[in-house]
Amino acid sequence: MDVFSTNAEFLDVNCYAVRAAGRSDCILIDSGYDCAPGLEKLLSEEGLEPQAIFLTHGHPDHILGLTNVLARWNVPVYLGAPDRYRLDSPATTLNPQFAAMLAPLVQDWNAPEADDVTDGQSFEIAGLTITAVAAPGHTEGSMLLRVVDGEEEVIFTGDVVFAGAIGRVDLPGGDPQAMQESLRAFATLPDVPIYPGHGPASRVSTELATNPFF
Q: Which terminal CB of the chain, N or C, has fewer other CB atoms within 10 Å?
């Protein structure tokens, strides 16, 4: 399995492309604002063709690139069911400070179609097995995405767990108690690489040993 990444300019979101060994098709993880040019360059260089987009959660910085990405690649979009409403009006799902910041970015926003994803649901796409693990706390519909290619596994943690930190819980839809339960679930996962929504990659064991929130 190969994991490629590019960064969206707005809030430096990691946008990933994942392919199974020996394949030319792939899946995309998250779609930050203005990520399409970087993704197009990356996918062209690697000879990849996306088959689906998985969103780790519905915060605007992870979804605002969908309009341009879907204009280039007409593929299905998957999002945790409790966050589905966030696609309808992204700027209104955060506090007033963020809403004002986002206003110029959502003037031409048209809510895309997305398929709801539920806890434990699995998909077989592009030679990969993708399993969603509900991990609320940052948002109601945050998901950990376990991606498996044969005996190899990686986990996309979105804004649940970062290298050395966790996602904030003080925005609308955040829940400190739910986050603690999600962190306990994270601690039971296998020791594999993790790829967060912001910042560098890490491993499950590294975060359990060094992340002050565990």
A: C
Other beta carbons less than 10 A from residue 108's beta carbon: 6
CB pairs under 8 A, 24+ apart, for 121-125? Answer: 123/52, 123/78, 125/27, 125/51, 125/52
Residues 164, 211 contacting (CB under 8 angstroms): yes
Which helix (DSSP H) or strand (DSSP E) does residue 200 occupy? none
Model confidence pLDDT, tens digit, residues 167-206: 999 999 999 999 999 999 999 999 999 999 999 999 999 9
DSSP annotation of 112? P
Torsion of CA 153, 158, 162, 165, to 10 degrees: -140
Q: Residue 189's pLDDT is what?
A: 97
CA–CA distance, 5 with 199 (Å, rounded to integer): 11
Domains in the chain (CATH in brackets) are 1-208 (3.60.15.10)
Q: Rounded to an integer, what distance in angstroms lies between the CA atom of residue 68 and that of residue 1?
A: 26
Closest alpha carbon to 48 in 36, 57, 59, 39: 39
Count of C-beta atoms within a 10 Å radius of residue 92: 15
Q: Single out the residue of 120, 152, 144 nearest to residue 195, CA to CA.
A: 144
Residue 29 vs residues 38, 170, 213: alpha-carbon distances, Å: 14, 24, 25
